[in-house]
Amino acid sequence: MKKNLKKRAIHRLKILGGQIRGLQKMIEEEEYCVAILQGFSFGESSVDARY
Questions:
Q1: End-to-end CA distance of the chain
Q2: Using N-to-C axis directions, what is the helix angle for 33-48 and 3-28, rounded to 10°?
Q3: Residue scoring higher pLDDT (41 or 9)
């Protein structure tokens, strides 16, 4: 794997991991459903983003 691609992939995974932890916390704290759905939307857009 090229060094630049690897670095960008790791960076994107760290961002996604943070978003997932945030969603987990929102669900545990029983946040308003719309806020949770918006969080899922942000996570999905991170996965879909191109390198």
A1: 13
A2: 170
A3: 9
- Asked whether the beta carbons of 47 and 24 are under 8 A apart, the reply is no
* pLDDT digits 0-9 by tens, 1-38: 788 999 999 998 898 899 889 888 888 988 777 777 77
Phi, psi of 49 (to 5 degrees): -60, 145
pTM metric for this prediction: 0.62
> What 8-state DSSP symbol labels residue 49?
-
Instruction: Let me know: does 46 contact 16? Beta carbons within 8 Å.
Output: yes
